[in-house]
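Bug report

Summary: structure tokens for Class I SAM-dependent methyltransferase differ between web form and batch submission.
Environment: batch mode, default settings.
Steps: 1) Submit the sequence below via batch. 2) Compare with the web form result.

Sequence submitted:
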Amino acid sequence: MSSPCSASAPCDSSCHTAARAASRAWRVVLRVALNASGWVTPSDLIWTVSLAAIQHRHGVCGSVGEIGVHHGAFFSVLAATAVGGERLFACDVFEEGQRAGFNVDHSGRGSRSRFFGTLRLALGAGFDPERELALAPYTSLRLHDEEARQTDAWTMPRFRMLSVDGGHIEVVAFSDLRWAAGRLAPGGLVAVDDAFSPAWPGVSRALRDFFHLFDRKHERLRPLLATTKKIYLTTPSHHSKYLHAICELSHGSGHRLLQEYGGGDDLPHPKNSSVWHKVSTVPIDFIGHMLMLTEPPVNGSRLDPVLNTNARGLAKRWEREQPMVGVPKPHESYSVAVSKEMMRFLAGTVSVNAMPPGVMQKTMKVYGRCNPSRRH
Ligand SMILES: C[S@@+](CC[C@H](N)C(=O)[O-])C[C@H]1O[C@@H](n2cnc3c(N)ncnc32)[C@H](O)[C@@H]1O
């Protein structure tokens, strides 16, 4: 990777420290997160660790946190990416909130003791969650309240990475997205879980509301990367830098990707998941911005018919726009396979009302693959 590590950032994101964090996070992925109860996917774990390393290379620092931690599978990896000077934040209704009826949709069941147990397993028995963690053990809807402004949730440094995976009904997910957008550091990332799940349409609707009602000009957040489960959003200031980095990395194996990002040659090699062997993305035009879409496995069971797009005209835009530097020039026509969930999400996001025919094709303009040798 070409970008230098940052020695002048407000956290210790020197090459050495960032590499140690990437390596630690990778070990937590393999030893803890994949074995803890929860719903994490290898693809999201690889991308989360890599994106954190990309952030550190660009000198982006800040707090790391999650709304909706359940038993800490994803949070343990997020926490492991933190370098010196970065703080941890967790919000969940936990058992008390469950009893009081705040876990409305039962998308998970946060348990404080199991969460702490996972963290000690991941970060070492010496890790003291009560002391080292800013905890908001209540419904995330309260984060907007006036009294919350005096708590760590507001006074700690703005977020480098914040996972939104709490209540999955529209009103809660929308409220969480709004809060996240307001608490993000420049170059921070928000990872929204279940963004394309037919089981949790509230999250897709919340995203649509966010981009159509609250952040119409995308001044706060821009879509950056979408896996089959999560969408990662970032601030406009760093959108093109990250696109470039993702593009450069997206034709190798997940394991090599992490080695390159500082994990080192001695990283344990996982088995039994295609994503460890191949990580690829395709850039698409999405609500007026470039979004990197991870390609589902070619023989995956949930693929919709391939979407054919015509990228003529986009080439001109590519030439005009400096942020496109590092991304291959669009070529004439291109196909991309997307999951049904993704298709539904895209449809929901481009229009609040029913989508006129052809809009999907217009929205899904494709720029071309990152790795020119793989273009058709
Ligand atoms: C899908 S689970 C989270 C999974 C977790 N991120 C993981 O990686 O395993 C959703 C979590 O959100 C919590 N939750 C539900 N409604 C909430 C709310 N309004 N505020 C905060 N947390 C909430 C639940 O207790 C549950 O732990």
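Above is the batch result. After comparison, the two runs are identical; trailing whitespace caused the diff. The chain is about 40% helix and 15% strand. Residues 38-40, 66-70, 73-74, 91-93, 102-103, 107-110, 139-141, 165-167, 172 surround S-adenosylmethionine (CB under 6 Å).
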